Amino acid sequence: MSRPKGARDGDYDDKRSVLLRRITARLMRRETARPSFRQLAEAADVSVPTLRHYFGDRPALMAAILETYLEAGRRGLEAVAEPTGNLETSIRDYCAALLTAMRAPREARLGDVFAVSIAEGLLDAEIGPSTLRYIVDPSVDVLRRRLDAHVARGEMIATDTRAAALFLISPLLLAILHQDHLGGRDTSPVDLPAAFDSICAAFLRAYAAPEQLRRGVAVGGSDRRGLGD
Fold first, then answer.
1. Phi, psi of 31 (to 5 degrees)
2. Do 96 and 51 share a domain, yes or no?
3. Residue 26's closest CA among 7, 11, 12, 39?
């Protein structure tokens, strides 16, 4: 009996997952500037029509790649929403964990995912929303929830915590991309742990509740922990 028109093969999802892994690996190597749909099909060892069968067009393919990455890292991402200790400890732990996560060796490093997805989103208006939905906004949202907990404890001023999350994460991401993905490590090296330490201190000075500041949080006292401690 022939398969009804429009019906999928029984192993459709498995084949699609294999294609996603192959194409993701190709993208994250960043071997050429923004590979075409045809080049991505070649990387997956399939024809262009086959790739269209599974994903439609290039923006839909990129959305599928980014969504798959988000779902694979969902558990670790959700853990970021939980504070670790008081405000200063929690913010410094977050910064240190982000630096480690962005550089951790994986099949697709988080730093590479941010670099590729932001570049793709900036260059293609159809991909931009997927970059926000699956990569940038989830990262901002879990940090916002972490900050909400500190506001509720009275450790942080009442504020727009989403804006505060962007205030913290933006320079951290830019510093990493500057060093690891734009050639800064060779042309204009930065001590990232020291830079992150300064960014954390600036955030705490801006957002710590007055009582926290009176106790010496982020004012450069001798008891301040660095990111490497």
1. -75, -30
2. no
3. 39
Q: What tens digit of pLDDT does each residue of 37-65 get?
A: 999 999 999 999 999 999 999 999 999 99
Three-state DSSP string of 116-161: HHHHHHHHCCCCHHHHHHHHHHHHHHHHHHHHHHHHHHCCECCCCH
Q: What are phi and psi of 87, to 5 degrees?
A: -60, -50
Q: 172-207: per-residue pLDDT in tens? A: 999 999 999 999 999 999 999 999 999 999 999 999
Whole-angstrom CA distances from 16 to 9, 19, 64 are 11, 5, 10
Same domain, 77 and 144: yes
Residues 29 and 130 in one domain: no
Residue with tokens 């509720």: 152
Angle separating helix axes 110-123 and 161-180, nearest 10 degrees: 100
Could you give the CA distance from residue 81 to residue 71 in angstroms, rounded to a whole number? 16
Tokens matching residue 202:
């600036």
Prediction pTM value: 0.86
Q: How far apart are CA 104 and CA 81, in angstroms?
A: 20
Calpha distance 195→121 (Å, rounded): 27
Number of domains in the chain: 2
Helix-helix angle 48-55:12-29, to 10 degrees:
110
